[in-house]
Here is the input.
Amino acid sequence: MDIKDIQNLIKFVSKAEVSEVKYKTKDFEITIKTPLAGSDAVYAQPAVYHTAPQAVAAPAPVAAPAAASTEKTEAASDDSKYVTIKSPMIGTFYRKPSPDKEVFVNVGDEVSVGKVVCVIEAMKLFNQIESEISGKIVKILVDDATPVEYDQPLFLVDPS
Here is the structure.
């Protein structure tokens, strides 16, 4: 393995957001650890993520453009005071730790920094997603057991 291969492997690990990768051959071994190493998830090998095609929304009717723009600006100003918890990875979003357990959070629940708000499954590994802010859950933006993209908004939190 030459230096270019090692650099490409490092770039891949940083983009894939995994905590640790080990690459081993009969005469060469490399381990790459990222700042995510403190998380519970352990990845044994790099992964190639494929996403399902997203449905394209039909264009909105142009019957009442003035009313629609007013509603959009009101909704935007309402949401601007909230903080968004986003998905740190691609995977499947789950509100419960297992099918027979209660959901992690509901609308109206108080969350604090470090509280688990959901689980995202990626490659048969269930990664607990923790809140990075304190506040009250205002809206849950994703349905249970649906695929999510990297950086996709999951929750709206009122920090006040």
